[in-house]
């Protein structure tokens, strides 16, 4: 009788321990889910998925394979400084078949033993895993990627283990990835000029303030070029607005190619471009402007199937060098603007340097 009571008590204790452990897991997952849902940037989200996930759930490796046929994701992360380990944990594919091979038609999570033949592309840094869970990331019934969990423990992920919880996590991850991607794209659209694809004036207004502060802090010179196409109206009038657009696009691309990655190029409006040359004194900026003017005057621009034209630029140059009258971003831009006006009235196709 007494023995029976003890056994019953042991069983109850064991059940209580399991219930408590499940509750802890549930709380743990809910906290993780909340952090995923609260993420506002793609970098922070990727950090949660690729790094925090491994620790929180005691895994050996977590990787993401994303279907990115138009390089949308890759363009968004291009400008970010990402941890070098992500080079092997953040994987992209342009072909749907690469993803499809890992899942059945129902696209349910796949829990199985690790096989080097099948899974090495998903876990390039971990050739000795015991088991893996491949979770399909689905949005609007489309497979957008796969979240891949790897464990050294061979019994951690096996086909007979319930996968509802993992399926739920994959749905949250897929939704968060889509949301942050859209969010980042919107941010980018607000700062890009849709015609030329380069930065717009809003972006420039933010950057010039940052660069002026940096130049003051580091006591380094900062030059600004105001570039204005000569007689651009004639191109529109003679060959049409679409031809004018094509010329603007080509000019933006040519200017971009001539600059260093630390310089800032933006379309200021219409046929005007602005450039910030960081850590560049006036004489060096004048050389760059001169090279730019000559290079562009030697290019040919197709305005229709049978006609190519040449163009010229006027450039105004101003420099903040901590010993002249230029102390603010407004003064720097205004000085460059007045200088381009002086270049125009003194004959165009030339550079004018602000005093
Ligand atoms: N095709 C095209 N034209 C534009 C765009 N934005 C502004 N423009 C045109 O650019 C022309 C600018 O004309 P103006 O300000 O007179 O300047 P300009 O003809 O270049 O003459 P100068 O600057 O004095 O040499 C106008 O005809 C605008 O319609 C655009 O996005 N696309």
From TrEMBL:
Kindly name one Pfam family recorded for this protein: GGDEF
Q: Name one GO molecular function term.
A: diguanylate cyclase activity
Q: Which residues cross the membrane?
A: none
Needed cofactors, names only, are: Mg(2+)
Which InterPro entries does the UniProt entry name for this protein? Diguanylate_Cyclase, DUF484, GAF, GAF-like_dom_sf, GGDEF_dom, Nucleotide_cyclase, Rev_trsase/Diguanyl_cyclase
- Its Enzyme Commission number? 2.7.7.65
Gene3D superfamilies in the record? 3.30.450.40, 3.30.70.270
Q: Which residues form a coiled coil?
A: none
Instruction: Give Gene Ontology CC terms.
Output: plasma membrane
Question: Boundaries of each GGDEF domain copy?
Answer: 220-355
* SMART domains in the cross-refs: GAF, GGDEF
Q: Which reaction does it catalyse?
A: 2 GTP = 3',3'-c-di-GMP + 2 diphosphate
Name a biological process GO annotation. cell adhesion involved in single-species biofilm formation
| Name recorded for this polypeptide | diguanylate cyclase
Organism expressing this protein natively: Methylophaga frappieri (strain ATCC BAA-2434 / DSM 25690 / JAM7)
């Amino acid at each position: 009788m007494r023995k029976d009571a003890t056994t019953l008590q042991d069983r109850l204790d064991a059940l209580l321990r399991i219930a408590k452990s499940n509750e802890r897991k549930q709380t743990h997952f809910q906290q993780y889910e909340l952090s995923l849902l609260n993420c506002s940037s793609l970098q922070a989200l990727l950090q949660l998925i690729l790094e925090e996930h491994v620790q929180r759930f005691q895994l050996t490796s977590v990787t993401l394979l994303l279907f990115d046929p138009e390089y949308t994701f890759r363009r968004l992360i291009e400008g970010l400084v990402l941890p070098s380990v992500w080079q092997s944990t953040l994987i992209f594919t342009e072909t749907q078949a690469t993803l499809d091979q890992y899942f059945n038609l129902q696209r349910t999570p796949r829990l199985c033993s690790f096989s080097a033949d099948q899974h090495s592309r998903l876990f390039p840094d971990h050739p000795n895993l015991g088991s893996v869970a491949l979770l399909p990331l689905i949005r609007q019934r489309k497979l957008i990627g796969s979240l891949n969990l790897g464990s050294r423990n061979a019994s951690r992920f096996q086909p007979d283990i319930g996968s509802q919880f993992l399926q739920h996590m994959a749905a949250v991850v897929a939704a968060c990835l889509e949301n942050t991607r859209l969010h980042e794209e919107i941010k980018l659209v607000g700062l890009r000029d849709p015609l030329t694809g380069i930065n717009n004036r809003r972006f420039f207004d933010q950057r010039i303030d940052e660069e002026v502060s940096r130049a003051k802090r580091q006591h380094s010179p900062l030059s600004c070029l105001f570039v204005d196409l000569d007689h651009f109206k004639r191109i529109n009038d003679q060959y049409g607005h679409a031809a004018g657009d094509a010329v603007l696009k080509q000019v933006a691309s040519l200017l971009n190619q001539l600059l260093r990655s630390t310089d800032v190029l933006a379309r200021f409006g219409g046929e005007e471009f602005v450039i910030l040359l960081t850590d560049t004194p006036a004489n060096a900026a004048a050389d760059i402007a001169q090279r730019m003017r000559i290079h562009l005057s030697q290019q040919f621009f197709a305005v229709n199937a049978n006609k190519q034209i040449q163009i010229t630029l006027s450039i105004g140059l101003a420099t903040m060098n901590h010993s002249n009258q230029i102390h603010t971003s407004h003064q720097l831009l205004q000085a460059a603007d007045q200088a381009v006006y002086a270049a125009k009235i003194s004959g165009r196709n030339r550079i004018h340097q602000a005093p």
